[in-house]
Amino acid sequence: MLSVVRVHLPSEIPIVGCEITPYVLLRRPDGAVSTDDVPETAPTDGQFMRYRWYRIQSDRKVPICSVHPMEQATIQCLGCLKSKIPVTKSYHCSAKCFSDAWQHHKVLHERASSALNENGAEEEELFGRFGCGGSGVLSTAGSGSLSNFGQSPSVSNGPVPLYPSGTDKNSGETWFEVGRSRTYTPSADDIGHALKFECVAVDSEKRSPVGPPTSIMTSRVIPAPTPTPRRLIQVNGDVLGHLDLDSQTSSLGTFTVLSYNILADAYATSDAYSYCPTWALSWAYRRQNLLREIIGYHADIICLQEVQLNHFEDFFAPELDKHGYQALYKKRTTEVYSGNPMAIDGCATFFRRDKFSHVKKYEVEFNKAAQSLTDAIIPAAQKRVALSRLIKDNIALIAVLEAKFGNHGAENPGKRQLLCVANTHINVHQDLKDVKLWEVHTLLKGLEKIAVSADIPMLVCGDFNSTPGSSPHGLLAVGKVDQLHPDLAIDPLGILRPPSKLNHQLPLYIFFFCKNGRCWL
């Protein structure tokens, strides 16, 4: 008989717009235990799984804080209502909460005012398209008394439920059936209500349950918090015109670039980020925020780091394709990595098809460079130790693109307008300063070969895990490393000698992510 062994949720707190996929462990008629679904279209031994989602609710209404979604709101910003900002953004749990959030909150007012002046359609982009703009008032069961302040006229009780309602005889709560699949995405109508997931094996012929249903409850659905606005750095002037020092390459005009380490789901653990609630670390929540932010920048070129292979294939590539981007990907090597092959991360580069076309792709594997280096300079007896220090599975993805805009050879008819874009993640422990600098230097020397052979400008993006003042930053930004730099004191393998070799001749614009979260050029 088909039966349910265990059911649990990836997070107890459901978020508006974030798909919930329960973990359902099934025991099949042959005794095998598996998480694979048994749909009605492919029954096993005349049985299949049926799923239902229910929303539990009552008529009690409670507003919740937009900053601290687990807290009940006590004050409301009337300026948000006047600016037509979604009502969920107007609630705060205390005067201190509102005061502390004011620098962030006033940006919403400024953006809303600007968007309304230019065109009203921008509002969806500013506040998200994943159902975060619904009612900020919660309808909850047994949640306590109401805060005594006025309700916005725009707040409604939501649409009629998808399926007929019913009443739980044990608790007396009213419930509405809202879904009939294994997954469910909470909407604004679910805010403040608990959800119940129910699954049961069903006889294909009789259409009746084989045994008792298994169910699990969530806590109350909360709206997605408003992301903190980024501090952007403006790059003035014609970027590639500046790079063309010898006036041999026509200017490509103006284009935009985004570089972003998105934090792979495999690394987003509660142990590493104990200050974050589990729902904020869940991939279902983060991926929607990431996609909304990435798309919102309208960048012509996007370089992402820590992109898991399965997330690239199943999410980023198809989603960004809908917005006109072509994708390239290079996963990290696996000499050190021992986890799920599909969960390994790498670098992904996207470019707008209406702005660029793909010419050539290069892949750099620092493990191979380490093997060549040890073969050349390390005594045989020390190779194992040297490789254990050098091999970190890091890679770089290099793409040569041809521009479809700009002067198009006005100064030199027939000359192709090319651009080389490098994307990398130098993921090396801070104690291994020699390895980090060696990987950066190795990448730059490879780019120099491409620049000489193709005579094209270079753009380097990535997460170098380095701060201003470090040797990798100096090499990238200045073109050389001070021979008295303290980082050079750590070189047990002699891979940085002589220090005078640590230079490059590339005129670069470099976008990279520093430890403190700021982007330095």
UniProtKB/TrEMBL annotation:
Residue ranges of domain Endonuclease/exonuclease/phosphatase in the record: 258-477
Protein family: Belongs to the CCR4/nocturin family.
Superkingdom of the organism of origin: Eukaryota
Gene3D superfamilies: Endonuclease/exonuclease/phosphatase (3.60.10.10)
An annotated Gene Ontology molecular function: poly(A)-specific ribonuclease activity
InterPro entries assigned: CCR4/nocturin_mRNA_transcr, Endo/exonu/phosph_ase_sf, Endo/exonuclease/phosphatase
TM regions (residue ranges): none
Enzyme Commission designation: 3.1.13.4
Main location: cytoplasm
Keywords attached to this entry: Cytoplasm, Hydrolase, Magnesium, Metal-binding, Nuclease, Nucleus, Repeat, RNA-binding, Transcription, Transcription regulation
One Pfam family linked to the record: Exo_endo_phos
Name the UniProt record assigns to this protein: poly(A)-specific ribonuclease
Assembly and oligomerization: Component of the CCR4-NOT complex, at least composed of CRR4 and CAF1 proteins.
Catalytic reactions of this protein: Exonucleolytic cleavage of poly(A) to 5'-AMP
Cofactor(s) needed for function: Mg(2+)
Source organism of the structure: Panicum virgatum
Any one cellular-component term (Gene Ontology): nucleus
UniProt keyword annotation of Repressor present: no
Protein task: Acts as a catalytic component of the CCR4-NOT core complex, which in the nucleus seems to be a general transcription factor, and in the cytoplasm the major mRNA deadenylase involved in mRNA turnover.
Keyword Cell membrane carried by entry: no
Cellular localization per UniProt: Cytoplasm; Nucleus
